[in-house]
Amino acid sequence: MTPQPHLVTRDRHGAKKWLRHSGYAFAGPINVAPIAAAELSHAARALPLAFVQQEDKPVLVALMGLLPGQNLFVAPDGRWLGLYVPAALRGYPFRLGRTNGEGNNFALLVDEASNLVIDQAVGDQSIPFFDDAGNPHPETQKVLEFLAKTRQSMEMSERAVAALADKGVLEAWPLQIKDGEEERQVAGVSRINEAALNALSPDDLTLLRDSGALAIAYAQLLSMGNLAVLSTLAQAHAKANAQKAARMTIPEGSFVPEDDGELKIDWNALFKDDETKQ
Fold this sequence. Notes:
Number of strands: 13
Strand order of the largest sheet: 1-7-6
Largest sheet: 3 strands, antiparallel
């Protein structure tokens, strides 16, 4: 479903409520998520990090899939399969949008195609957008504050990545994926050139350290080991898809055991520790 972001206003949403998302099916087509400076340590332990060009500048992102429209961390039932959920996904169905399309002025938007915006009379778990006095409801205010803090931290990350690019330590990452029987290159993904980083002068390293860029560089290098997580998840999804296809080809009238109603993928066994999913 195509997102329908709308500015949250009293005129439009004063008589409506919103629901918290109960899963991550909405993130199924999202294969990269920007990573904020404040979440760097959590993200680097759980996700492969890389740099991609967005709006003509390099941005630190989590790789959640290597194909467009593919998020391997989302199970068929919408569960998140990793050990950490990027902050960029946790505010859904809300996000911040620039007012007038530019500058640093942001406003709260809500995706009205999310099925999480409802009429006042529906849903015991629903939350009003505004209170009786016309002010943002405390829970709506909490979401706004979370998104604002995340945006500020994203800007810190963007400035640090710009410093890395300025020092020439980003290089193309020769990632490959298997497409049928062939291997093909994943374009547009960069990583830290460790040799170039180590060759910087003490003054340059100090500059990168003070800007937070050095921490991002080392975190990205360490996170590359998490590519194995993508491989594990890709195999699980492939198995689930094969089972689904096999079930669809069972002739009508054939005997199917009752317990075949569920795909035989133990998604919970892929990752046991949820403590860092915050």
